Amino acid sequence: MMLPTVISQQITGDHLANIDLLLPADLLWFSGHFPTCPILPGVAQINWVMHYANQLFGPMPVVKSIDVVKFQRPLMPDDKVTLVLNWDRTNHKLIFKYLAHGEITASSGKIALCQ
């Protein structure tokens, strides 16, 4: 399995979404990263940002750059997290953050998309 379990999602307008996710221990992303203490790789987090943005806001332009990314707290098997997406159409930026336990920022960043 490559995607987390969606518990719930809330979409506000055409630019803001909150998606509550469960990270099952059997996610392929945890396999081998790291064997004694599995954590969710950053590339998986970015992949999910683009996946859910495409699903909820419609087809996204191609990624131009990934800016200001911070990984502040590891995401681990069986964690429940909230993915917050904000699609700034005017500036072609997708702003995201993952919240652990509903309030602790685990990671965040801005993805610049081609115009």
UniProtKB/TrEMBL annotation:
TM stretches of this protein: none
Cleavable signal peptide: none
ApeI dehydratase-like domain span: 14-109
Protein name, entry field: Hydroxymyristoyl-ACP dehydratase
A Pfam family it matches: ApeI-like
Top-rank taxon, per record: Bacteria
